[in-house]
Description:
Layout: H1 4-15, H2 18-25, E1 34-39, E2 56-62, E3 67-74, H3 82-97, E4 101-106, H4 110-117, E5 120-122, E6 130-132, E7 135-137, H5 148-153, H6 155-164, H7 171-182, H8 187-201, H9 206-217, H10 224-233, H11 238-256, H12 263-271, H13 275-285
Helix pairs in contact: 1-6, 1-8, 6-7, 6-8, 7-9, 8-9, 11-13
Amino acid sequence: MVSSSHEAMHRIFQEDPGVFARTFRALDLPFPDPVAVSLMPTDLTETRPTERRVDTLLKIDTATGESHLLIVEAQGKKDPGKPAAWAYYVAHLYAKYCLPPVLLVTCQDRATAEWAARPFTIGPSQWSALTLRALVLGPHNVPAITDPSTAARDIPLATLSAVTHGKDPNAPAILKALAIALKTVDEETARIFAELTELGLGTAPAAETWRQLMSVDLSFFRSETSERLRAEGRAEGRSEGRTEGRAEDILLILAARGIEVPEHARERITRCADLDTLGTWLTNALTATTAEDLFAEGPA
């Protein structure tokens, strides 16, 4: 059975295929940004009764006029039989579409990532008929995004960061940054990436941290966790908890950005009981240069 973590790792690329190029550009692999993306059939089943399916298959068209196929596979642990399946995917798709395939493997732990990144050769020791080389994303090369303003600038990459670093000691800071950033986008976008994060974390210890963060203010989050939390939230004291949580988020952003908060400004933030006002201040906190900028009527 496919795990929720497995599902989320490759769905991030379905939501924003451009995160592939942006991530590897930082690793000195100059993949161009896509100008068009087509979701391709993932069923590679032959006429004989052997079913073969990739996690995600995308056709990427670039501004240079070149196109390639992007095969996204989420790998949770070392699997000696997997390289043979990957080699089949690459060869079959190249023969079927006559387009160069790129195999991308996403992992949540360094050991699996290092295993997946090594070249796999097929053939006798004297002469290999095929060498398989996957591009691998994992905690060893995906940036740990702990700054809310950075996360807000690229939500898909911040989500990928949260998922791939789900087992790291630094995971709570990454998740906090993402939770704050999600409050700056529209509800549908936030819902999608909030749920992908929950799915991607799976049973990692950070999953409980994410559930606690989601209980504060993401009322549009409609996963199983959110439904339970919203039901509990009808109890007395819910509104007070939400305002306190949002005020803490504002102060956290300002502190992370190195902005000094005078005592009178801190008191104004923590005593505010209006969620809409706090929401405006939260947005302003991402671009403010002083604490006073926070209280401007429009974005700083």
